[in-house]
Design goal:
By secondary structure, the chain is α+β, with helices and mostly antiparallel strands. It has two helices and nine strands.
């Protein structure tokens, strides 16, 4: 289990049935922001992880909502925050993830990897005597990708599920 503080992230929302498709759409939007599509026309360093909040759709063939976020560098983690995005579909938000159970997996993450890892993590949480899934959080889970698309070996990905102590 890990605990995360509330921090600033640059985010965008994408409706899709695929985390990889949503990630591609979101990456273009967010990279534009980092490349200067902001009120100061300022270049901002890219950090990791790229965080995906996955809010499942209501049915098996429905789109899901993916909120894809780039962590804002620490020098902007202030009351003033980073430069404001100029694009309407990019926004700065505080995300408080709190306590999460974590499952790590490697490789280039495909939709099936993200879903199967989260499913197994939910099962492990259900079997635990120490933690339970946090029912006060909407039916969401998180996928964090830590590597550049050009990293070919030893890739690091994680699924996170909000939990509470029993």
């Amino acid at each position: 289990m890990r605990t995360y503080d509330e921090l600033l992230w640059a985010s965008t929302d994408v409706q899709s049935d695929s985390v990889t498709d949503a990630g591609s759409i979101a990456f273009g939007r967010l990279f534009g922001y980092l490349s200067g599509a902001n009120e100061n026309s300022q270049t901002i360093d890219m950090t990791s992880p790229v965080l995906n909040k996955i809010s499942p759709g209501s049915g098996p063939n429905c789109n899901n909502t993916f909120t894809v976020s780039f962590f804002v560098p620490y020098k902007y983690q202030t009351a003033e925050g980073p430069p404001k995005p100029t694009a309407d579909d990019v926004y700065i938000q505080k995300i408080k993830i709190s306590d999460v159970a974590v499952s790590v997996f490697g490789g280039f993450a495909e939709d099936s990897d993200v879903v199967s890892t989260a499913s197994k993590l939910y099962s492990d949480i259900d079997d635990s005597k120490d933690i339970d899934a946090d029912t006060s959080v909407e039916d969401v889970y998180w996928f964090a990708a830590y590597d550049s698309p050009y990293t070919l070996r030893n890739r690091h990905n994680e699924d996170w599920i909000n939990v509470v102590d029993l």
